[in-house]
Fold each of these.
Amino acid sequence: MGEPFPEIKSTHSLVAKHVTKDVWAKLSGLVTSTSGFTLAKAIACAVEFDNQHCGIYAGDWDSYKVFADVFDPIIQEYHGISPDATHTSDMDVSKIQGNIDPTAPVHSTRIRVGRSIDGFGLSPGITKDQRVGVENLMKKAFANLSGDLAGTYYPLTGMDEKVRQQLVDDHFLFMSGDPNLKVAGMERDWPEGRGIFHNKDKTFLTWVNEEDQLRIISMQNGGDVRGVFDRLARGIQAVGESVKKESGKDFMLDAKYGFIHSCPTNLGTGMRASVHVDLPGYTKEGVKVLQARCETLHLQPRGTRGESGGQTGVTYDISNKHRLGYSEVQLVQKMIDGVNTLVKEDRELQKKHGL
Ligand code: ADP
Ligand code: MG
């Protein structure tokens, strides 16, 4: 039988709203077949922390189906989609209009997507064997990449500490210790099965077994978002084809929810297109003002050391806010246009503040 109804500390979270006593009674005794995931495991962050907005993760693709009574309304509310909405992917770079203003103070551009390989669990639920299975498959798959995408896979296990820290400091590598990832079960058996692939120039990279099985990344200095998107589109296709060739498996792709990710907030494109840009005018105005302006532009500001790493100086990570309900092309366009707007406004704010 099911477990007793938990005390959900994040009282304002989507989990608190949608995990009712009735739903709990119906679902708390169920266990998914791919990774043995439960509703209790899925909502661990909402139960444990008092600061969650969403508060739920999936442990495998089955989770979205077995616990659909919880996931469906949360996904619809978070992404603002209707119950019968479907997702369409579009990575045709020729549809992008314009680019970041070449005079904008942009340090670097990065676009990432998450991808999951069918048949393996997602990070919160993935078994030890499945995690190693993903890594072994990816070692073979990476070896097939050619041209500017060719590179080397570096497992975290046995990596020299200085090399690891440098990769983190240079914004290439993830790090452990994010409280959400920990409580959600994503740091079990750390660092086994995790690693990073990158080409020689570190412009095409893939994280293995962090928050998602795969995070495929294209990045470079400067503000050429079109160029970064073009490389990403080619890279995703090459990795997908290589995985298929080595294993016969596809990426998990759902008609309604697009590419499957462990966090329902990433469903759809799973794409975050960001620039690191200096905004000294907005810094004077305060981060609240910047956040509000980003909201109206459908953008999200972060610190430059990643979601959990914090803010330094006048440089911000500005990215598209949405993942689902828009195509990749539309989201990249929003980011380009929005960043150009912010940079223009920031020049006015600098004058206002006598900078
Ligand atoms: P993700 O959404 O991929 O999980 P995080 O916010 O956790 O991203 O950041 C991961 C890493 O990527 C961090 O080191 C961050 O500084 C780096 N990063 C993000 N955007 C950019 C960018 N435009 N240029 C350089 N590094 C970036
Ligand atoms: Mg992250």
Note: The radius of gyration is 20 Å.
Amino acid sequence: MNDTTGRILELLKAGGEYLSGEAIGAQLGISRSAVWKHVRDLKEAGYGIVSSPKKGYGLRAAANIPSAAEVTPHLKTRTLGRRIEYLATVDSTNRAAGELARQGAVEGTVVVADAQTAGRGRMGRQWVSPPGANLYFSVLLTPNVEPARVPQLALVAAVAVHEAIAACCPEAAALIKWPNDILVGGRKVAGILCEASMEADRVHRVILGIGINVNGASVPRELRAIATTLRSEGGQEVSRPALLGAVLNHLEPRYRSWLREGSLTGLLAYYERHSALDGRQVSAENLSGVVRGTARGITPTGELVLQTAAGALVHLLAGDVHLLPQAAPPEVRPGRRAKSTAGQGAP
Ligand code: BTN
């Protein structure tokens, strides 16, 4: 959306039932036919605008697009999202945000796209990013911290995304899967990719890339067993601008506390209360191999603690975690007593 289109949108939002093309043109110094063309662009972008030859134009429905014009009214932040670059299509918002950072963009700059042609996931995977339904965005951060602390930001972001989903779509009972996946009913609705540029003793920048499956009626067939959307879980269309605004509103204070406190201490209680893993049998895969055990929480530095069958406590810094099927509760037959299920992870 260019500047003039954005200003026409502002006028229509403030303009009551109808605003004439002539009045809009006079305010912006453009002709009525130029106004008509901008209004056509707004309609194409999804805004519900009615036209009457006598009365002019009236805005009846805002578009569910995460552009700066739609997201900004939801923001309560000081820095995050104060610059929003909205792109209809981009290869990857993380790549685009990195480029803006190299050109001097300030902390809190957000790049958001309606669609990505080469969305990046963790572990070199692809993030499927069709248009019109979901959120794909990247937040530029420049934390003055030791490089070893950077991976903790993925957990900070996971908490903020969980808080935002809980606020905007409470019907979908979301949980956090370490380190930073958000699941509903065991399937993924959001993922976070934390990419950093740093030297041995200094962080230049961190790009927090966040993908949320929002309003798709479903996900592609090949992903259905492992992924879902907020709309299919919560039953209602979710406002993408409101959800993006909510993520930034939650991320800013979580990020500030993390910087101030020097660890994840302030969010551990929230993280563990909403963890998909606590007390569950999991298998975790990282560069050193596969570990199986019971998840016993996370540390203030963001490591996942697993208790192996032999009782050893293993701390994982990174990895891909899979929930193992829960042990079935014992069958209760008439006349027999059930065995205790304690410690078996009964549902
Ligand atoms: C994951 O694998 O779980 C992380 C997925 C992160 C996807 C988001 S979409 C916006 C941003 N741009 C990218 O290319 N990737 C992230």
Note: Residues 46 and 138 are 23 Å apart (CA to CA).
